Amino acid sequence: MKLLSVNLGRPRAVPYTDQPEGLTGIDKRPVDHPVRVAAPGPKGVGASGLAGDAVCDTRHHGGDDQAVYAMAREDLDDWERELERTLPNGAFGENLTTAGLDVSGALIGERWRIGSPAGPSVLLEVTSGRIPCRTFQGHLGEKGWVKRFTRKGAPGAYLRVIQPGEIRSGDPVEIVYRPDHDVTVAMAFRAGTTDRTLLPRLLAAAQALHPEALAAARKYAEEYAV
Questions:
Q1: What's the pLDDT tens digit per position in 132-164?
Q2: Chain centroid offset of residue 106 CA
Q3: Which is nearest to 31 in space by CA: 172, 170, 164?
Q4: Global model pTM greater than 0.85
Q5: SS3 call for 202
Q6: Residue 80 phi/psi, 5° resolution?
Q7: Which of 63, 100, 144, 217: disulfide with 202, CB 3.0–4.6 Å?
Q8: Three-state SS string across 128-169, please?
């Protein structure tokens, strides 16, 4: 398991975002230098967990619980075949493009150590899946993309930073902790999108789950007395 690339975005003006300034950082490109990773601060205040990476819409993106976004190269390859187009690393706006790692199958609360054992490695914790938005659809230019991506159910994973440090393309990825429950990123994504009856099951991962998903799970459980 390793990082194929570390991808950073720069602010760019586009016609498909509802940001007042019309800017987005979703167009992320691989870089060949070490990148500092640290907790950016709470949502609405903090942006990306990667130094030099732009998050322009801090209402919905960035912050400690969405500090880093990872996507499996294997999932990008699958989309390449389905869409019949090339999708380079970073095409989905992901910070980390991985190889050999089941990102959407990761457990909420699973922890990954990334970086050389001899250097300042980074420890990340899985919190949730990525919810598609109009900016994502506009960036890819695929009609009906939000529904299509949602139906696929392989959203990639958001992670929070437990231990800051530096990473770079080619670094090994090690799963150093897996919690004792069955709540995966894919399950949490389905619970928040296509099958809300799954929401109570997310409470098993309450300790690490993204706060917004946790609030939705608790509300559903209370309303339906699950």
A1: 999 999 999 999 999 999 999 999 999 999 999
A2: 11
A3: 170
A4: yes
A5: helix
A6: -55, -45
A7: 217
A8: EECCCCHHHHHHHCCCCHHHHHHHHCCCCEEEEEEECEEECC
HSE-CB of 193 using CA atoms within 13 angstroms: 22
- SS3 of 176-195: the string is EECCCCCCEHHHHHHHHCCC
CATH code: domain 2-223 is 2.40.33.20
Q: How far is CA 124 from the centre of its chain?
A: 11
Structure tokens at 109: 């609360």
Identify the bridge partners of residue 113 per DSSP, sorted by sequence position: 123, 174
> What distance separates the 2 farthest-apart alpha carbons in the chain?
52
- Per-residue tokens: 134: 């109009």
Query: Is 17 in a helix, a strand, or coil?
Result: coil
DSSP annotation of 16 reads: S
Q: How confident is the model at residue 108 (pLDDT cuts 50, 70, 90)?
A: very high
Domain boundaries, the chain: 2-223
Q: Which two tokens stand for residue 150?
A: 């949602």
For CA atoms 22, 28, 32, 33, the dihedral sign is positive
